[in-house]
Model the fold of this input.
Amino acid sequence: MTMTKVVNGVTVELTAEEEAEISAEWSANEALAIGRARTKVLQAARDARTAIFGRLDGLQASAMTLSVTDAANAATHIATAGAIETAKEGLRNITAVDLSGATTEVQMKALILAQYRVIASAAPVAVQLAFAGLDA
Done:
């Protein structure tokens, strides 16, 4: 498709240089929009992560306390505390998710949410509750 412009009331085709300039401007605007979306999505991921860390810290402290006070189930409580630490490590890396293939905020959010789901699904069911509300 050839690009055109109107000069003195006459429609004329753009030169190759003019088309290249417009294309470069569009590309720059698109890159700027993608960069802004990425910043917004990563900040939202950090905010959600902070809330989840708080819940996990409470669950982990409880599991460690129970490992001392409930000797019969100490190994289970210690395993839960270890699983929580693994989930926390995954959360620390959530902003390293590869978003390079995403060109929209919706696509980026979906990639981050998918990573949250991977982290949560690897944890015990009681720990998965700390991730509740991410789909909202």
In short: Helices lie at 16-69, 74-92, 105-121, 125-128. The CA atoms of residues 90 and 114 lie 12 Å apart.
